[in-house]
Structure formats: structure tokens, C-alpha cells
Amino acid sequence: MKIVTIGLGYIGLPTAIMFAKHEQDVIGVDIKEDVIQIINKGYVHLEEPGLQEELQKVIQAGRFKAQTNVEKADAFIIAVPTPNKNDVYKSCDLTYVIDGVESILPFLEAGNTVIIESTIAPRSMEDIIKPLIEERGFTVGKDIFLVHCPERVLPGKILHELTYNNRIIGGITDLCTEAGKKIYSVFVKGELIASSASSAELSKLMENTFRDVNIALANELVKIGNALNIDALEVIEMANKHPRVNIHSPGPGVGGHCLAVDPYFIVASAPEMTPLIQTAREINMSMPGFVFDKTKELMAHINGKKITVLGVTYKGNVDDIRESPALEIAEKLIEDGTYEVSIFDPHVDEEWIEKNFKEATQDSDLLLVLSDHNEFKEIVEEDLSEMKQHHVFDTKNVFSSDLNLDKYTSLGNIAWLAEAKNVSPL
Known about the structure:
Elements: E1 2-6, H1 12-21, E2 25-29, H2 33-40, H3 51-60, E3 64-67, E4 75-78, H4 95-104, E5 113-116, H5 124-134, E6 145-148, H6 158-164, E7 167-171, H7 174-184, E8 192-196, H8 197-228, H9 232-239, H10 262-269, H11 275-302, E9 306-310, H12 325-336, E10 340-344, H13 357-360, E11 366-369, H14 374-377, E12 391-394, E13 407-410, H15 416-420
Parallel strand pairs: 1-2, 1-4, 2-3, 4-5, 5-6, 7-8, 9-10, 9-11, 11-12, 12-13
Antiparallel strand pairs: 6-7
Helix pairs in contact: 1-3, 8-10, 8-11, 11-12
């Protein structure tokens, strides 16, 4: 089988490699010439364990190549970004998906399967994608098999989860669903769940919205704990010992290409029916500002001059800064202009990232932990020798309690600042 994958990012490239690894002939298409050149040399342009090794194998086997142009194939997979629009409900921008579909239309032939992996708003397949194909004279479900198969993978474990996670196969018709199942059965060992396209769209969005809403509950608990001078992290630990309770972990906000984006696609589709989802989004969107304010309070209390930010990715052990609340907080601190700010992140290769930990912490008064990279969990006392003061504000609860610090502040015990000022945290 010959497969063309449109989009060679965090999902498209691993997906293309997995099909090629299982003896399919795969063409990866992307609009970025530099990305094409890097990939064809056997190197990946993103951080994902095991991906480069697998890429080199499939290139050497002659099963995969990257290029900027589309060509004929048996199946076409579109895995391109779907950002938020800049409208009142931050609805789904289908521009890249539509461009992807239009790029394959001249090459479609009867019997082809078209799969949309991009996360899209409910009814996008029925109301927007299907008409694009049928305008070319095809009948979806008879000539062309159209399917929505949303990705459900965790960065850092993508290759494993592509193989072993259950996969939703949402066809426009039953025959479309069967065509999609046939394609993914090439390598997926998880259950192939038959669904309609619209149900598949909403299911994907609700998976991430569920997590966003539950994180919002934890983040709201942090604010309650701050107001009442109660350790929110201790409360969560105890509550989760109940057999039917699983409060999520709080943090500096919610980021990434899924949790911070997908709930809005539901809200925009049914704004009057989604007050809970909208409130959860507001709570999580407020956390960068909350952490920024608490950081300033802490620096004022210790008369600090320099902050070292540890981590600007949206989650630990990845290089992804999309929608990152950590990056938002760092930018707020820099724009504020009150303090010297250095940034250290071993996973992000940018000019504005300090490469050396000792230099990043030189004369620093505060470590502000915003990403839960494994490297930060392994910091020992000697690593902090260049700091002027040994204060830590750990928003990800990763620092060792064994370190001899001037003060360790977390989202659990943050209320000590108000107590120190002898004012109500309210």
C-alpha cells in the first residue's frame, strides 16, 4: 500500500514512520523545505525518543521519503495543525486542513481512502470536508472512503502509544470505517473502535476537555488553599486516597496543542451549552497570572533581584512550547522589567535559553520551576552553589525536599507569603 502523509510535525512524522516501518511505501509531505531536507538526511526536527532511529531505518529500507509535492497514493493522511481562531470563542481554524484536502484533490482516484488525523470541531467532516471531495464528482462511501481518526498519544511515548493505544475509526459511512480499520490494522495493536465521524470528532475533544476541567478543579483548589492558608497539595494527596477520587495535579496553567486548544472547539460549536467547560478554561488561563503575581510577592519579600526560570515547555521531558503557560510566565516577568530573568531549559534549543545551569543560576535569588523535566528532579545542593539566595518556587512539585534551602515554596504552601505580611490572602 502506498500512503501519502500531509504534515510532518509531532503527529504526522511518527505516523508516517510507523506505516513505513511496517512495510508500507510512504511519502511524507510538508510545506517547509528545511524540514524536508533535515528529514531526508535521517534527522528529526523535534524531540521524541526513538524517532530518529526509526526514521533512519525506514529511509535505508527505501520505504519513506519526504517532499513538498503530493502524488498519487492508495491512502492520504492529513495531520496538520488546527489552531484557534481569534474570535470570541476561539473556534477551530480549519485553514491547514482544508489546504491539505485541496492539495490531494487532483490526485484522488476511485478507491482511495482519505483520513483526517488533525483534531477538528464537531461536524467538520460532514459539513466541510465531505463537500470538498464530492464537489470533485466523487461519492463519499462509494468512490472515496473518508475517515476521521484522531491521534491519542502522549509526547515522549508517541511510538509506543501509536502502536498500543486504542484507536477511534470514525467513518462517514460504514464502508469508510472499514476502510480506515484496514489501514490502521497494519500496525495498531490496540482496539480499532468503529464510530461515526462526528462522534469521533467529539470524543477526541471530550477526552482532552475532561482533563482540562479536572485540572481546573485542582487549580481552583490551589487558590482556595491560598485564601484559607491550607496546603492544597496535602489536601489532594489525602483526598486521592479515597478509592473513588482522583484529583489531578495543579500547575502554572495548561498548555500544548490539545488541552489548551480543544475545549474551545466544543464551546464554539455549542456556546450556550458549555458553561462548565468555559469556566474551566478561564480558571486554567488565569494560572499564569496567579503564578506571576505570587512570584513578584515572593521576590519582594526576599528583596530579590534575579529569577532563574527552570523550564518553558508546556510539560516535562519534551521540547514543545506550544501554548506553554511556562513561557507565558517567563515573558511576563521579562516584560515587567523589575528583575533580571535567566531561563534554563535543557530540552529547548533557542538563543534566549541559557545553556549552562551554573551560569543561569549565577547570583540568582529564586528558582522558579515551571516544567517538570527529569533533570530538575535530580538537582542537588552543589548545583545551587552559584545562587545568591536559595529560594525555590516549585509550581510542578518536582524538587527534592532534602535540599537545604532558605525557603521552599510550592502551590500547596503559597499562603505563607500573605501570612508573612500579616494580611489576609483574600
